[in-house]
Structure formats: C-alpha cells, structure tokens
Design goal:
This protein has a domain of 63 residues. The chain is 46% helix and 11% strand. The protein has ten helices and six strands; from the N terminus they run H-H-H-H-E-E-H-H-E-H-E-H-E-H-E-H. The strands form two sheets. The chain has a four-stranded parallel beta sheet.
C-alpha cells in the first residue's frame, strides 16, 4: 500500500515512503516496466489522453449518466455487442433496463462502498428475479459470494450467474495464477457437494422454494 501511495503522491509525499519502497525495488521496476498505473482506454479526456486510474473518482463525481445516454453508449460500443448494466438495486431500474434493450444486469451494491445502508444483493435478487420472469434479461449478481453454497443460493433465487471478487483476489495474492485456480477448484467442489446434498443433478433443477434454501433477509 505504501508503494502505491508513493506512486500516486507528490514528490515530497513520496520521500516518506522511501524506507518502505527500498525492499520492493524489484516490484517497482516490474510495475513501471508494465506501464505503471493502468489507464481507461475507453474514456478519453479533453486533452485526448486516456483517463488514468487515479482520476476515476474525480471523473465520476463530475459525470452524470442517465437513461438518455444509453443510445449514445450503445452507438459507441457497437449495436451488435451486448450491454451489461451494473449496479441495479431495484425492480424499477431492472424494468427500465428491459425497456431500453439492455442485455444483462448485475444486481450489485458495489460492495457497500458507494452508499451506506443499501440492501444486500440477495435481498434485491429475490424481488427482481421473480418479477422479470418471462423476459429475456440475463441476471447476474455480485456481493458476498464466498463459497460454492453462496453460488447455489443465488442461482436458486433466480440469478443466471454470479460474479466473484474477493475470493479469487485472495487466491491471487496468496499464490498467483495457481492460487486463483485453487480458488475456483474449491468453489466448484462446494457447488457440486451442495447440489448433491439437495438432490439436484443440474443447476436448472434449483428452486429456492422446493429445496428450502436459507434466506437470511426474509
């Protein structure tokens, strides 16, 4: 963390991180050799340069995106390419996504980092998925997926797929690529074990009511 703060800080601020950075010179060398801080190549600033990662907070605060921008986004992205909208937290927005031709939504509260007291994503999923039955909208969910059992519960309550964040990041930090592979092997085994205990041969057989899956927010 100290090394990254030094990279982002002013020259004077960087000096205080010197003792922390000295043991990690090989990491700093590879960091800069790889291009340093990432840039958002799909967000071009007024000066014609891609937006640096460090500026994303300031750019988001200065930006206002509404449903009216969606045709413009689709035109730039490509009319034949799928659009996935992340951050849907209520049925009303999910329905608007259907009406605007969005291909998939991600029910997400962004880890609870953006606004305090938002509902857990599983709570939102139960309401949204039941009301979107019959539509072609694909529903994804993230937030709190820590085990294969969590994956099964989300699928049973109507998600088509889940997104996993911290689990694979922990694996990456602990063991690199091998660590990530291990994480997914663990999740796969837990999914299979959970489904065996439920008596389900396929994920398409999952149903929260039929299998009395736990739901902590009802």
């Amino acid at each position: 963390m100290g090394a990254l703060q030094a990279i982002n800080g002013t020259p004077l601020q960087k000096l205080k991180f010197g003792p922390q950075m000295i043991p990690h010179l090989s990491w700093l060398k590879s960091f800069y050799a790889d291009g340093g801080m990432m840039k958002f190549r799909n967000v071009i600033l007024d000066n014609g340069e891609p937006m640096p990662y460090a500026d994303v907070g300031a750019q988001l605060r200065a930006s206002v995106v509404t449903w009216e921008h969606l045709p413009w986004i689709r035109d730039i992205w490509g009319k034949d390419k799928p659009i996935i909208m992340k951050g849907v937290q209520c049925f009303e927005d999910a329905q608007l996504a259907v009406e605007h031709g969005v291909d998939a939504i991600v029910i997400s509260n962004h880890g609870g980092r953006q606004m305090d007291r938002v509902y857990p994503t599983l709570y939102m999923l139960k309401d949204i998925a039941s009301k979107l039955k019959g539509s072609e909208m694909k529903i994804l969910l993230d937030g709190g997926i820590r085990s294969g059992g969590d994956v099964v519960i989300a699928l049973a309550y109507g998600a088509d797929a889940v997104l996993v964040g911290r689990a694979y990041i922990y694996g990456l930090g602990a063991g690199g690529e091998a660590g990530v592979r291990k994480v997914f092997a663990i999740l796969k085994k837990e999914i299979e074990d959970t489904m065996r205990l439920l008596g389900c041969a396929s994920i398409y057989d999952l149903n929260a009511e039929d299998h009395l899956l736990p739901y902590p927010f009802s």
